[in-house]
Amino acid sequence: MLIRKPADLRYSDVTPKQLYINRRRFLAAGSAIAGAWALPTPAGATMKLNNVVKSAYKVDEKITPREDITTYNNYYEFGTQKEDPAHYANTLRPSPWQVQVGGLVNKPKTYDLDSVMKIAPLEERIYRHRCVEAWSIVVPWIGFPLAALLKDVEPNAKAKYVAFQTLYDPKQMPLGNRAGIELPYVEGLRLDEAMHPLALLAVGLYGETLPNQNGAPIRLVVPWKYGFKSIKSIIKITLTDKQPPTTWNISSAREYGFYSNVNPAVDHPRWSQASERRLGELFKKKTLMFNGYPEVAGLYSGMDLRKNY
Ligand code: MTE
């Protein structure tokens, strides 16, 4: 995504992941402990999540191995190479944590993790996840609909957009000053996109709390959009009447639009978006419109998706 030097012009080539993936396994410390959020979490450790219900939202495709999902990441606050976040995100302290939700709402609220987890039952949802760099994975997320959180704070009639912000603490993220993007990382959705039942706030994957490198303790997952919309380690959600700024659009507006819907017919200026490489598979597969989630098409009826990329 970030291209600063000619030597970096290799993202789109998508070198076979075997060359990149560090086979380091993450052993879940204290994996049998219930009520994980209430306890101080050792940095980098994950814990089993209880009372997770299976959801009908699941794609019938091979789930990407946990090891791959957790060692091939984009989390620029912890380095710009794919293997960096798995090495360096252990300095993030995901507990205690608060998410401040406010702006154009009737009931602004600051949630700690215990209270945010009580908003709706936790579901396991198996989603496709398509990065703008033309690789993809299938992830068994655990989370709850973003809509449930938004309804809890009651957006008022003026609210049209939802803005999200990641923590930026240079002490916990000492590599942040080398990220090459403006921090804190920010993202946004139109309110109707945010209310779509597919939009998920994830707190775990593979049955456990999120590893730091995947955005602990709470991150967004918008499966019909390129992965960079799925902002990690959220501390602030603000309802607004104006389209909020987004990190990659600030970095390069020509390359990264506000909408960023997965669209095989609209190429990135520097590479094709027609196909993708599923991590762990040899042959490329065709990329599907809206990443194979056609139920969101109604959100964009009448819009030129070439202009609104
Ligand atoms: N969120 C923050 N705060 N910082 C980031 O660098 N990278 C984005 C997104 N969210 C990013 C972020 C990109 S480019 C992608 S593809 C996904 O996170 C990757 O999520 P994953 O590492 O869980 O696969």
Describe this structure in words.
Helix content is 11%, strand content 23%. It has one domain: Oxidoreductase, molybdopterin-binding domain (Sulfite Oxidase, Chain A, domain 2). The strands form two sheets. Strands 1, 4, 5, 8, 9, 10, 12 and 13 form an eight-stranded mixed beta sheet that branches. It has a five-stranded mixed beta sheet with strand order 3-2-11-6-7. The chain has seven helices and 13 strands. The chain is of the alpha+beta class and 309 residues long. A hairpin with a 5-residue loop joins strand 2 and strand 3. The site of ligand MTE has 18 residues, from loops.
Shape: globular
Strand count: 13
In N-to-C order, the SSE pattern is: HEHHEEHEEHEEHEEEEHEE
Helical stretch tally: 7
Structural class, by secondary structure, is alpha+beta
Tally of distinct domains: 1
Overall pLDDT confidence: 89
Write the CATH fold name: Sulfite Oxidase, Chain A, domain 2
